[in-house]
Design a protein that fits this description.
Pfam families: ABC_tran. InterPro entries: AAA+_ATPase (IPR003593), ABC_SmlMolc_Importer (IPR050093), ABC_transporter-like_ATP-bd (IPR003439), ABC_transporter-like_CS (IPR017871), P-loop_NTPase (IPR027417). With 194 residues, this protein is of the alpha/beta class. Helices cover 31% and strands 25% of the residues. It has six helices and eight strands, in the order βββαββαααβαβαβ. It has a five-stranded parallel β-sheet with strand order 5-6-7-3-8, sandwiched between helices. It has a three-stranded antiparallel β-sheet with strand order 2-1-4, with no helix packed on it. Helix 5 links the parallel strand 6 and strand 7. The structure holds adenosine-5'-triphosphate (ATP). The site of adenosine-5'-triphosphate has 10 residues, from helix 1.
Length: 194
């Protein structure tokens, strides 16, 4: 069942962020949410994750769905290693060897046992991305996951993601249309709804 947002209205105080906003998000596809800063992209995904209330409208298709996320911040346990950060969300059925193999695919094998606080920003970002991918969720939500990565790393991560998210329901917030295209996204420009 697709995710259907019907006539959503969301206000912060007197400020209306969404007014009768409707959108269908296809299951098994990548949907890229775009639009100027402040247009409500993060608010919308926080609503979908159940972290933010809305004033009016109805959202269907999220019942009993497990969502995993990369927020704008990495939200890792800084004193724990990459392996431990990921194994916490994977559960016992995923072996350390499997996690290590995924880390190796995006250049993190050497650093996998170091506390993540000793890793660079770009490395932490990749750990957060793998954690999200390996969490065995029904829906993946990314809030600007590739922001701040250098071009080479970005390319590698996109290649990795394309393989991993094939056939999955993914919602990605991005300012980069090329990134959206490379991930074969259906592009939704929130500015067009106002
Ligand atoms: N908790 C809050 N209380 C009041 N206003 C808020 C709150 N969260 C967001 N806003 C406002 O809602 C609007 C939408 O914010 P949001 O973060 O969803 O935008 P965005 O499109 O994700 O922006 P960016 O691209 O910069 O991340 C902004 O004007 C913001 O200031």
């Amino acid at each position: 069942m697709n995710i259907n947002i019907n006539n959503l209205t969301k206000k912060y105080g007197k400020k209306k962020i969404f007014k009768n906003f409707s959108l269908e998000i296809e299951v098994g596809k990548v949907t890229a949410l775009m639009g100027k800063s402040g247009f409500g992209k993060t608010t919308l995904i926080r609503i979908l994750m159940g972290l933010e209330k809305y004033d009016e409208g109805k959202i269907t298709g999220l019942e009993n769905q497990k969502i995993s996320t990369v927020f704008q911040e990495d939200r890792l346990c800084e004193n724990l290693s990459a392996i431990t950060n990921i194994s916490i969300v994977c559960g016992k059925e995923t072996s350390i060897r499997e996690i290590s193999a995924e880390l190796e695919k995006i250049g993190l094998k050497e650093s996998q046992n170091k506390p993540v606080k000793t890793l660079s920003g770009g490395m932490k970002r990749r750990v957060a991305i793998i954690r999200c991918i390996m969490a065995k969720s029904d829906i993946i939500i990314f809030d600007e996951p590739l922001k701040g990565l250098d071009e080479t790393t970005k390319k590698n991560v996109i290649r990795y993601l394309k393989e991993k998210i094939r056939g999955k329901t993914v919602i990605i917030v991005t300012h980069d249309i090329e990134e959206a295209r490379q991930l074969d996204s259906t592009i939704v420009n929130l500015e067009k709804f106002n």
